[in-house]
Write a structure and sequence with these properties.
The protein has 189 residues and is mostly helical. It has helices spanning 15-36, 43-69, 79-90, 101-115, 148-169, and strands at residues 4-12, 179-187.
Length: 189
């Protein structure tokens, strides 16, 4: 007769940790490439860092909303509406014209631009006194966000807003960590 087992698992898995770790790793990779002078493929960790910072931001906002409002959390609302709701519930003063929310607004726009990718049609004629770099005409407007300074600011501001939310909600950092365990026992028949 084959041995049987009963397994009981309890876990709380919080994806914001994985998304933040990915953003952190991509930011580290970006700085390693810059420091070594290796610009080959540099846009890829830059893009990834910004996208994963934006994903982490929304997951963190969803986490706090879930903790504070439980089943009343509007999971399908847009991120700015969620932030405004949390600000109201937690009595936070929001200023979208100042950091960190000013930066957060930009990172959300960046994420949305990539997530809802649409053709960008450029049709312009310029007159200039110097011979232009024609390849720059092929760069999409969103690439202007891909600078180390902007990426550092975005990642730092997402983290600052996260700490602000946790403090306002009275949530300890330890509560935000994925955790769990299991119990295994042999079933004797």
């Amino acid at each position: 007769m084959a041995q049987k087992y009963e397994i009981h698992v309890e876990a709380e898995r919080f994806i914001h940790n994985d998304l933040s770790s990915c953003a952190f790793y991509m930011r580290k990779l970006m700085h390693e490439k810059i420091d070594s002078g290796d610009n080959n493929g540099l846009y890829f960790p830059m893009m990834s860092c910004l996208v994963f910072s934006a994903f982490a931001l929304e997951a963190k906002v969803n986490f706090v909303g879930w903790k504070v409002l439980k089943d009343g959390w509007p999971e399908r609302a847009n991120i700015k509406a969620k932030i405004r709701l949390l600000a109201e519930v937690l009595s936070l003063e929001l200023d979208w014209g100042q950091r960190p929310l000013q930066t957060i607004s930009k990172i959300i726009r960046f994420r949305d631009t990539l997530a809802h990718g649409k053709p960008e049609i450029v049709n312009e004629t310029l007159v200039t006194d110097v011979e232009p770099e024609i390849w720059s005409a092929l760069e999409a407007q969103w690439t202007t966000a891909l600078t180390a300074e902007n990426i550092d600011r975005c990642d730092d501001d997402v983290e600052a807003f996260w700490k602000q939310l946790l403090t306002a909600a009275g949530i300890a950092v330890s509560e935000t960590l994925t955790h769990g365990g299991h119990h295994l026992s042999s079933v004797v028949e």
